[in-house]
Specification:
The complex is a heterodimer. By secondary structure, chain A is an alpha/beta fold. Helices cover 39% and strands 14% of the residues of chain A. Chain B is an alpha/beta fold. In chain B, helix 1 crosses helix 6 and helix 4 runs parallel beside helix 5. The N and C termini of chain B lie far apart (34 Å). The chains are: A alpha/beta, B alpha/beta.
């Protein structure tokens, strides 16, 4: 039975991933900031012995280290760095909240690095040896369809954090491939979550129905790449 | 003559470019953290139309104050040059592991993001009116091929590389947002240069890089907006 560790698993895509991988028969290590309030995740864990819930704020790097030690020796086939957020609104030109921007970088980029530094050993012990970072189509610097003009406005904080995350994915792919670990980015599409809003195209369930088979096919040749949910590559 | 505002003008490429633009007769607002210690910049100022301002670009309130001080001054080229490769601003050191997997200096990373990404955004927010009032209406962000994700074939330098990738997204977003004001925004790659940042084994002399960048900046056209341009005039991938 393969094992996944997924962050931010109390709602949105993270919850859908936890539910989806449980249905696929995986062992699921699901983390979220406040397990006491994670009713749906707790219900999943109550109904499935294969699901364990851990409290983790990914911005608390000391807590990441503690969880890493607690899970020492546990092989993790798929580290899914899912926790992330859009940041304070508005975030258009002339409206930038710089403290908020720092917070977005910390959660969406630095915490992914800390998770990866901490859990690379666990992933190296596993069969599949995958680390997947949840990015976004809005991360694309090359996007010819109007950089800075995504469906939600200019989004300086969010977009720059995801561009930086893509660079992190690329850098990690070089450092970890010698240990057989493939680090890959995915864009799950525009999803009806707290981040995507109610008018988005996909439900979380529809998105992960695309993403789980996509991730299933990932291997060393995919290291350092960024895929949209439909399997196409997102340009940098 | 046109007017240039240069950040990080006391050393390296910022100093070199300030000298070339001063020689060409431009009016220059040259910013650096410690003007008192900027002897080479002061020597340039003695010979040209160069106004030196104390500015730490990490101090966003100071950026606002300088913009207010220069209110009514048209700035043809806003050159966001100031940047750091490591938080302690040491010279280039290939044995430095503060930016290597397993040993990341996260506080340093945040500082690098503040100086290399947020400060150019804050400078642009504060000086957009000055640029819009000029003839050339150009904003240059000093990036690097190290910020090109597609061009990254060796990894490492996590903090620096992610900061420049994020800066390139800032450039692209600004290019879209400021198009209505006819402002052109580009990222520039100076080459690997023998500065304190680039180290002694780098490929280019500062003079080669600076003269190339001078040509590039002098010739920027509106259709270049949103591009990453190399010191030799070529366009680089994201």
């Amino acid at each position: 039975m393969p094992t996944i560790l997924v962050t931010g698993s109390n709602k949105g895509l993270g919850l859908a991933f936890a539910q989806g991988y449980t249905a696929e028969g995986w062992k699921v290590i699901a983390t979220c900031r406040t397990p006491g309030a994670a009713d749906e995740l707790n219900a999943l864990a109550a109904a499935n012995d294969s699901v364990e819930v851990h409290g983790l704020d990914v911005d608390d790097f000391g807590a990441i280290e503690i969880l890493g030690k607690q899970l020492s020796g546990t092989p993790i086939d798929l580290l899914l760095n899912n926790a992330g957020f859009k940041g304070p609104a508005p975030q258009g030109f002339g409206q930038v909240d710089y403290e908020g921007w720092a917070g977005v970088f910390h959660t969406n980029v630095l915490a992914v690095m800390k998770m990866t530094e901490t859990f690379a050993d666990h992933v190296a012990l596993s069969d599949k040896k995958l680390i997947v970072n949840v990015s976004s189509g809005l991360s694309s610097v090359a996007n010819k369809n109007g950089p800075g003009r995504g469906p939600f406005g200019e989004l300086y904080l969010y977009r720059t954090s995801k561009s930086a995350l893509n660079m992190l994915t690329k850098c990690l792919s070089f450092d970890l491939i010698d240990r057989g670990i493939a680090v890959v980015g995915i864009g799950p599409g525009w999803v009806r979550t707290a981040l995507g809003g109610p008018t988005a195209k996909f439900s979380p369930e529809e998105s992960i129905a695309n993403c789980i088979p996509l991730i299933e096919k990932f291997g060393p040749d995919d290291a350092g790449k960024l895929y949209l949910y439909d399997g196409s590559e997102i340009p940098w | 003559m046109p007017t240039l505002l240069m950040t990080g003008a006391n050393r390296g490429l910022g100093l070199g470019m300030t000298g070339l633009f001063a020689d060409a007769g431009w009016t220059i607002h040259a910013c650096c953290r410690k003007p008192d210690a900027a002897d080479e910049l002061k020597a340039i100022a003695d010979k040209g139309d160069v106004h030196i301002h104390a500015l730490d670009v990490g101090d966003f309130a100071a950026i606002e104050s300088l913009a207010a001080e220069l209110k009514g001054t048209a700035i043809d080229v806003l050159f966001n040059n100031a940047g750091i490769m490591n938080a302690t601003q040491k010279s280039f050191d290939p044995t430095d592991t503060s930016d290597a997997f397993g040993n990341l200096d996260f506080d340093g990373w945040m500082q690098i993001l503040r100086i290399n990404v947020m400060a150019p955004a804050r400078m642009t927010e504060c000086f957009v009116g000055h640029v819009a009032a000029s003839d050339r209406k150009t904003i240059c962000n000093m990036s690097s091929i190290m910020g090109s994700i597609g061009g990254n074939d060796s990894g490492s330098w996590y903090a620096y590389r992610t900061s420049k990738a994020a800066l390139n997204m800032v450039t692209r977003s600004l290019a879209a947002d400021l198009k209505d004001q006819d402002i052109t925004v580009v990222s520039l790659h100076p080459g690997w240069v023998r500065t304190s940042m680039g180290g002694p084994s780098a490929a280019l002399s500062p003079e080669e890089s600076v003269s190339g960048l001078f040509e590039v900046v002098s010739g920027i056209k509106p259709e270049n907006s949103g591009e990453l341009i190399c010191w030799d005039g070529g366009t680089l991938p994201w």
